[in-house]
């Protein structure tokens, strides 16, 4: 079913395998009966054919735009369309992207770039293999290409040309040096500062709203029993399995585990208990309002600043991503300089 709305990111997994390389860009290719904003698969054909932009005379349609919208927000199919509050931003981004892709494609034509026939053939074979059954592949072929392999191959060729061009113009120039990464770290010191925090697991007993005295008493009895079991645990895993079984809070689905929590986010009663604990300790019952909680301390992190070596790998990827975005923006601006782009 994943092919009924077919973002090219999936398609390019097949192309990457066929060509022995990782795609740097994934223009949206296919969708079978594109999804309407209110109900997937209900947009009339004539509406999909409506022009939304012209790029040097080449017409981009509502179908092209819709494909890109659902590539940006693939969960739209599960949610009966794109949420209304997100729709304007997603539409603007999708429109900009399909115009950019068309400008890139036209530039590949101007430069007379080509893709070997064997590469296209391999990509098509891998694309076919990505479908669970021949029936699903044939369904998409009929919906998108009226059963024409020639039209499919042309779409593959177009995408591979776009990808090859962006590799040459963007990917080969987005390498960052250690000095650039270090400079980014030094120029953004606040970014790497962190407050004092605790990493904890919890087991909570939560009474119902407007609990009666009897219900509160029953909850306290249950909490005392939970405390005895929690104190007997020796590892995070044992505590977590117990939390899964008996805790009333939502963190039971993550074995009671919380992400690091800043000190400022804790109730005073909890901070008082944590301050007297060391990693691995299990607290006594802590009451906040009518909720009774047992806390296992995982880690206490004092306020400070992450060292460069600790964030270097992640930061290198971020700086490279930023550089790639800057290169793409500059390329978009350059391609638009002498282009005639009409938004309809």
What does this structure look like?
- Mean pLDDT is 84; it is low at 1-41.
- Helices cover 51% and strands 13% of the residues.
- It is an alpha+beta fold and 344 residues long.
- The protein is built from 12 helices and 11 strands.
- The chain has a 4-stranded antiparallel β-sheet with strand order 7-6-9-8, sandwiched between helices. A 3-stranded antiparallel β-sheet has the order 4-3-11.
- The protein has helices at 8-19, 45-48, 62-72, 87-110, 117-129, 134-145, 149-169, 178-187, 213-231, 236-246, 268-275, 308-337; strands at residues 5-6, 30-31, 51-55, 58-61, 193-194, 197-205, 261-262, 286-288, 291-301, 304-305, 341-343.
- The protein has 3 domains: 2-169, Porin chaperone SurA, peptide-binding domain (Triger factor/SurA peptide-binding fold); 175-192 and 304-338; 196-302, Chitinase A, domain 3.
């Amino acid at each position: 079913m994943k092919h009924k709305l077919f973002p090219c990111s999936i398609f390019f997994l097949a192309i990457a395998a066929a060509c022995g390389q990782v795609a740097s860009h994934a223009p949206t290719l296919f969708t079978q009966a594109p999804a309407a904003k209110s109900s997937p698969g209900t947009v009339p054909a004539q509406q999909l054919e409506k022009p939304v932009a012209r790029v040097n005379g080449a017409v981009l349609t509502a179908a092209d735009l819709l494909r890109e919208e659902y590539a940006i927000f693939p969960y739209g199919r599960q949610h009966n369309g794109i949420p209304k509050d997100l729709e304007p931003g997603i539409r603007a981004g999708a429109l900009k992207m399909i115009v950019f892709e068309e400008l890139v494609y036209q530039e590949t034509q101007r430069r007379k770039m080509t893709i070997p026939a064997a590469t296209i053939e391999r990509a098509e074979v891998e694309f076919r293999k990505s479908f669970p059954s021949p029936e699903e592949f044939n369904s998409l072929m009929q919906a998108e290409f009226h059963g024409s392999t020639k039209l499919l191959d042309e779409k593959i060729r177009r995408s591979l040309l776009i990808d090859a061009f962006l590799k040459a113009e963007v990917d080969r120039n987005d390498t960052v040096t250690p000095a650039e990464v270090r400079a980014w770290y030094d120029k953004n010191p606040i970014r790497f500062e962190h407050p004092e925090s605790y990493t904890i697991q919890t087991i909570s007993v939560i009474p119902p709203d407007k609990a009666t005295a009897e219900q509160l008493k029953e909850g306290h009895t249950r909490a005392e029993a939970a405390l005895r079991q929690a104190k007997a645990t020796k590892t995070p895993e044992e505590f977590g399995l117990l939390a899964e079984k008996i805790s009333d809070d939502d963190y039971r689905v993550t074995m009671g585990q919380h992400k690091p929590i800043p000190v400022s986010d804790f109730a005073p009663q909890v901070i008082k208990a944590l301050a007297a604990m060391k990693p691995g300790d299990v607290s006594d019952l802590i009451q906040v309002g009518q909720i009774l909680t047992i806390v296992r301390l995982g880690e206490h992190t004092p306020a400070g600043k992450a060292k460069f070596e600790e964030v270097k790998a992640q930061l290198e990827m971020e700086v490279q991503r930023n550089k790639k975005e800057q290169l793409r923006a500059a390329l978009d601006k350059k391609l638009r300089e002498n282009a005639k782009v009409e938004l309809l």
